[in-house]
Amino acid sequence: MSTLGTAIDSLTAAMKCNILPNQEYLLQGSVLDQYVEVLLHRLRGLCDNVDSGPETFNDHELCYSLRINSANAPCILPLRVRRALDVTDAPFQLRYVGQPELGDKNRPTVVRSSIDMACSSTILEFLNELGCRLDFEYISRGYMFRKGRMKVTVSKIFKMNGMSNKPSEGVEAISQSYLVELSVQAPLGQDAIAEDMRIFAEQLRPLVQLEKIDYKRLGNMMS
Amino acid sequence: MQQREEKQLESSLESIIQRVNDLKASLSSMIMKIETEYETLNWPKFLDNYALVSGQLISLSKVLSHDKCTNLRNLTVLPLMLSPERDEQLVQMTEGRITTFSYDLVPDYLRTKLEPLAEQKMMQLELKAQNLQYDNAQKQIAAYQKVVSHVWDIVNKAREEWEVEASSRGSTQQNSSVADTHLLVAAVGMGKNLKMGGNPNGQPNPTSGGMMVAPQGRPGGPPGQGPIPPSTQAMSMNKAPSAIKTNIKSAAQMHPYGR
């Protein structure tokens, strides 16, 4: 118990010192399948990992939600687990992302709180025991680039046809486009990075329109 | 009469000096830019500077050719005294460029005619031009004009092609689709169109639509309140599929917990 205590202590201390990268600055867009090569080519030119080429990934993401039934305000806690299908010894990733905040017009990116941690494969069992429910899952395959602190992912999203035990079989792409995301994880209050992201996103136009996506409006629009 | 002329000279000199000073300032700022900002300097900025300098040159030549301006060619500058000593006032006036008003410098600085060598060359050229036959000159002009107009045509054609290409690229080529962006973002963010696959028991999810978008759904704090136990047993990967299986089984059993 004492070890747990110190772990929480050091976590609290880290949060107080504001060194935890708990904010995610995010811009999203998409590119049609036939132009993805052009985009990858441009990203290869713009980003840091030129020599090694783009990093590929093939991940399975499971999105859980935990309902907390407190008396006055029932709330839903979304939790995401991501695991690499191509690198079998990589740890699982547990992730919490909060509500995206759009801010006003002067803010170049969406900001949402975000906490990442590495964990073992028992996390799935643990979440089930905790009462979390699996909401949806998908496969994300694509390329990752880096530019300073910025991360760019170009990924194809696949729907799983109910075969959770064999995640790479029977999958089906959900659209004719690749999802493009530009994100930075940073501690609270480092808003300057958002401006860098805006400038970077500007360089990808008109190939990709990286934008602040309003989730609330999107929810109304799609339903 | 003489007094009026002197006044005129003074005023025209003043305006010339002002123009020359402007020119000098913009030239030096341009040089400064080239020397210090050569890494960030771009063509548009450089051309802006250039346009400024050429505009100032034009206004200077306008002042010089103005009727009211005394013809400087008709005036003489007469050095009254030369001295090999350092002249502080001169240093100050010329911003440190000339330190002495001495024999070897004065002929260069007070020169009103071209250098003898250049003058000789000019004379030669003028002589050659004078001796040229009219027909020959016309022929040369025609040939020259032909070359220039040819180059002009090439440049124009290239520009046209470029503009057509640019406009067609701007209007017709669509590289991304807003609908697809929304589809993908809604799928990844809110599970839109993915939920059926994720719900093996086919039970409709009553809150699926507003799961992530419901404004009251904002969690009160970071998920740290449920202490995540540091995983004690390092799972080897061959156990991972079993973990997923557990997940399906328990997804079916989950409702007793959920409600």
UniProtKB/TrEMBL annotation, chain A:
Q: Name one Pfam family in it.
A: Med18
Decide whether keyword Coiled coil is in the record: no
Could you give a single Gene Ontology term from the biological process aspect?
regulation of transcription by RNA polymerase II
- Has the keyword Transcription been applied to this entry? yes
Specify the superkingdom: Eukaryota
Query: Mind listing the UniProt keywords for this protein, alphabetically?
Result: Activator, Nucleus, Transcription, Transcription regulation
Question: Could you tell me where this protein is found in the cell?
Answer: Nucleus
InterPro entries assigned to the protein according to its UniProt record, in alphabetical order: Mediator_Med18 (IPR019095)
Q: Which GO terms describe its cellular component?
A: core mediator complex; mediator complex
What is an example of a GO molecular function annotated in this UniProt entry? transcription coregulator activity
Q: How does it assemble?
A: Component of the Mediator complex.
Q: Which family does the UniProt entry place this protein in?
A: Belongs to the Mediator complex subunit 18 family.
Q: Say what the protein does.
A: Component of the Mediator complex, a coactivator involved in the regulated transcription of nearly all RNA polymerase II-dependent genes. Mediator functions as a bridge to convey information from gene-specific regulatory proteins to the basal RNA polymerase II transcription machinery. Mediator is recruited to promoters by direct interactions with regulatory proteins and serves as a scaffold for the assembly of a functional preinitiation complex with RNA polymerase II and the general transcription factors.
Q: What is this protein called?
A: Mediator of RNA polymerase II transcription subunit 18
| Organism listed in the record | Rhynchophorus ferrugineus (Red palm weevil)
Lineage, please?
Eukaryota, Metazoa, Ecdysozoa, Arthropoda, Hexapoda
TrEMBL record, chain B:
Indicate, by first and last residue, each region the UniProt record lists as having compositional bias (Pro residues): 220-230
Write one Gene Ontology MF term: transcription coregulator activity
Protein's GO biological process:
regulation of transcription by RNA polymerase II
Region of interest: Disordered: 194-259
Localization recorded for this chain is: Nucleus
Q: Which domain of life is it from?
A: Eukaryota
Q: Which GO terms describe its cellular component?
A: core mediator complex; mediator complex
Q: Matching Pfam families, A to Z?
A: Med8 (PF10232)
Q: Which UniProt keywords apply?
A: Activator, Coiled coil, Nucleus, Transcription, Transcription regulation
Primary place of residence? nucleus
PANTHER family, per the entry? MEDIATOR OF RNA POLYMERASE II TRANSCRIPTION SUBUNIT 8
Q: Which family does it belong to?
A: Belongs to the Mediator complex subunit 8 family.
Quote the function comment for this protein: Component of the Mediator complex, a coactivator involved in the regulated transcription of nearly all RNA polymerase II-dependent genes. Mediator functions as a bridge to convey information from gene-specific regulatory proteins to the basal RNA polymerase II transcription machinery. Mediator is recruited to promoters by direct interactions with regulatory proteins and serves as a scaffold for the assembly of a functional preinitiation complex with RNA polymerase II and the general transcription factors.
Q: How does it assemble?
A: Component of the Mediator complex.
Q: What is this protein called?
A: Mediator of RNA polymerase II transcription subunit 8
Q: Which organism is it from?
A: Rhynchophorus ferrugineus
